Amino acid sequence: MIPSIEWTAENKVKMIDQTVLPHKLEFLEFDDFRAVANSIKVMNIRGAPAIGVAAAMGMALATIEYKELGKENFLKKMENAANVIRMTRPTASNLFWAVDRVWKIIVSFPDNPSNLSELVIEEAKIMAQEDINVNKNIGKNGASLLKDGDVVLTHCNAGSLATVQYGTALAPVRAAIEAGKNISVIADETRPRLQGARLTAYELHYDNIPVKVISDTSSGLLMKLGKIDKVIVGTDRVTSDAVFNKIGTYLVALAAYDNKIPFYVAAPTSTLSLHETIKDVTIEQRDCSEVRNILGKVQIVPDGVECLNYAFDITPFRLVTGVITEDGVFTPEELLKKYKA
Ligand code: MRU
């Protein structure tokens, strides 16, 4: 797959518009941090690592806009830009991690050096490249869990489109196939935004990786019938007691547990937030129209009936077989031992 986001030679942020996939492969270009923030909010770009990089690039655009200001005004404006970006989506750690990482550079100089904005642009580009490297390592580590002929179930899209490139949950699949194993994927459609049907299916098909789409309610039966060997999902945030990921992940984990099927979570360390517990995390609630209407087009709920639209759910550690990071594969206990300071 082509990168989902990049910094252009003209100092613009270029991204695939994921709202129009799979019907059209279109690109958006922004030179204003407010527009980048909006693109995160309306999910032109989505997926925890990808929105982290978008956030960093949005901050870089703001430094260009404000570079002529004196230190005090510059900092005020940048604080506002950081808040606009932070307010876009509440659940994925990467968004906050990325803004904080750029912020450290911004405040590290007593006076703004004339090249501060170049330094921030450079950092955002480094973060994009790091994301690809991290994903490749997740792929290598996760591929060792897959054997020839395995069928892997995934939920939502934690692939190339959810990152800069290569993906997290789909990285082990890609790496195992690159190593010559015969692996296929079953993708949950992932109501209401249909990231599985629209995006996971699109990118795997694009790369000639065998994929079948199922309705979200089918995975339990397929596990019972012995048609799924492993589950690999991505995550938006890992706390010291649970994994937050796309709504529906918890039910997949329960079904996997009941059917003794390994349930793995692919998590770059930028997603780890192990100083937190479940109660510290805000689960995003999106507009009910996403549930009421299929992709904003066909209304499926009667007029006058309310809907609930929680975007993520919580899978407790007891249901997680292993967490695949860029450093290795860890049980939840091992993960805490390795990364919790
Ligand atoms: O609402 P989305 O599409 O941003 O949700 C994405 C997911 O839940 C992914 O599984 C998660 O961000 C990991 S992406 C590598």
Strand order of the largest sheet: 6-5-4-7-10-14-15
| Uncertain ranges | none
Mean model confidence by pLDDT: 97
For the record, the CATH architecture of the largest domain stands as 3-Layer(aba) Sandwich
> Could you tell me the strand content as a percent range?
15-25%
What's the CATH class of the largest domain, please?
A: Alpha Beta
Please give the alpha-carbon distance between the first and last residues.
36 Å
Number of strands: 15
Provide the gyration radius in Å: 20 Å
Which structural class do the helices and strands define?
Answer: alpha/beta
Q: For the record, what is the CATH homologous superfamily label of the largest domain?
A: Translation initiation factor eif-2b, domain 2
- Largest sheet descriptor: 7 strands, mixed
Bound ligands, each once: 5-S-methyl-1-O-phosphono-5-thio-D-ribulose
Q: What is the element string, with H for helices and E for strands?
A: EEEHHHHHEHEHEHEEEHEHEEEEEH
Keywords:
single chain, 341 residues, alpha/beta, Four Helix Bundle (Hemerythrin (Met), subunit A), Rossmann fold, 7-stranded mixed β-sheet, 3-stranded antiparallel β-sheet, 11 helices, 15 strands, 16% strand, binds 5-S-methyl-1-O-phosphono-5-thio-D-ribulose
Architecture overview:
- This protein has helices at 33-41, 48-65, 71-86, 93-106, 116-143, 171-178, 195-206, 219-224, 249-258, 289-292, 332-339; strands at residues 5-7, 13-16, 27-30, 151-154, 184-188, 211-214, 230-233, 237-238, 242-246, 263-266, 293-294, 298-299, 312-316, 322-325, 328-330.
- With 341 residues, it is α/β, with parallel strands linked by helices.
- The protein has two domains: 5-135, translation initiation factor eif-2b, domain 1 (Four Helix Bundle (Hemerythrin (Met), subunit A), Up-down Bundle), CATH 1.20.120.420; 138-339, Rossmann fold.
- The strands form four sheets. The chain has a seven-stranded mixed sheet with strand order 6-5-4-7-10-14-15. The chain has a three-stranded antiparallel sheet with strand order 1-2-3.
- Helix 6 links the parallel strand 4 and strand 5 (184-188).
- It is globular, with a radius of gyration of 20 Å.
